[in-house]
Amino acid sequence: MNLASQSGEAGCSQLLFANFNQDNTSLAVGTKSGYKFFSLSSVDKLEQIYECTDTEDVCIVERLFSSSLVAIVSLKAPRKLKVCHFKKGTEICNYSYSNTILAVKLNRQRLIVCLEESLYIHNIRDMKVLHTIRETPPNPSGLCALSISNDNCYLAYPGSATIGEVQVFDTVNLRAANMIPAHDSPLAALAFDASGTKLATASEKGTVIRVFSIPEGQKLFEFRRGVKRCVSICSLAFSMEGLYLSASSNTETVHIFKLETQREKPQEEPTTWTGYFGKVLMASTTYLPAQVSEMFTQGRAFATVRLPFSGHKNICALAIIQKIPRLLVAAADGYLYLYNLDPQEGGECTLMKQHKLDGSAEPANEILEQTAHERPLVAQTYSAAVAKGKNLCPSSPISYSEDQGAVGGAGVEDDMNALHLDEENEQPPLILETD
């Protein structure tokens, strides 16, 4: 998530960007002085895997799972994408685009570059442009989502700037898969589950979160995060097994929903006045307007998190760390928060640790004593201040390696349709000059 302001600054914080990798095993951080990777294998310690200070003002940094491949965009060259082998410290290739790069998404088959009114689909094996989706509705925030599944390799992006339509695109067969009328208001957040068979959506209104089947577009779940106020949804994230969905916003509350179908219980005659009234109330929903009756059937949060701040942009993730389900929140105040999630009871999650994204940690009891206004507020997007630039330039074949763990390990092979990663057979990367 880009955390820079419209002027390209991040206030008092050094943090410009933060994002979790595809399986939530590491955290990428872009700063004014470069970028860093942290391992998420421990709660008590935030281990720094790598730090680069060669590129300043890194506003986008995306790592491919636990591999050495990283995609980088700088505020000083916001129309240029650099693909690097960070362990060797070498640039593999670079591309220049006609407008500001707002988002980059990676999986083992595709690399997606999102501009305000176009999307470029690259083959990650050689970085060749396979397809360009042009003249998309204005998308100044660079909202899009890419499934990490090899079998269901879908891209989702807004189909309208005025209502919440979602366009779903098959990035393997390079054709449109579906259009989902998800919300009445414009989209604010999108997220695929790990299997690529579910898509979560939220609108700018921020009160309702929906989950659709992919590619069919059938509504599977509908959750209400609140009715008192409209909020700005910052991020949506599924757990890796797809059972939980987290939603963070510009408020102090993160909601966690459980994706399970309620079993219908046999009808029982009520024995109290309250039971009788409830039965009459539910029966009357069939005569109410659709918007009112939906409120009676929408799911509520299974668990919640109370952040020690509000007003900061943030990104959340659900991960298993040391065999316990955790909610992770990386925020524009420069901190990573880790909470325990009770998978049986839900309820309010327990804050376990807070790590400053310079590698230091703070005990949980010290976190709660801090107030939200003691930390810098970071505004929205930086793209409005950047002018148009160069056209797209060609690239050359690339190769890189992937490790089993976030810190190190032997090379691994994936399915036949995926990219085969082998450290020993790796060719020297090519450096392309496109300036």
UniProtKB/TrEMBL annotation:
Q: Does the keyword Cytoplasm apply?
A: no
Q: Which GO molecular function annotation, any one, does this entry have?
A: phosphatidylinositol-3-phosphate binding
Primary residence: membrane
- Record keywords: Isomerase included? no
Q: Topologically, how does it sit relative to the membrane?
A: Peripheral membrane protein
Alphabetic keyword roster? Autophagy, Lipid-binding, Membrane, Repeat, WD repeat
Q: Which GO terms describe its cellular component?
A: phagophore assembly site membrane
Record's superkingdom? Eukaryota
Q: Which residues form a coiled coil?
A: none
Q: Output the Pfam families linked to this UniProt entry.
A: PROPPIN (PF21032)
- Location(s) in or outside the cell: Preautophagosomal structure membrane
Q: What is one GO biological process annotated to this record? A: protein localization to phagophore assembly site
Report the InterPro entries cross-referenced here.
PROPPIN, WD40/YVTN_repeat-like_dom_sf, WD40_repeat_dom_sf, WD40_rpt
Q: Which family does it belong to?
A: Belongs to the WD repeat PROPPIN family.
Which protein is depicted? WD repeat domain phosphoinositide-interacting protein 2
What is the protein's species of origin? Pygocentrus nattereri (Red-bellied piranha)
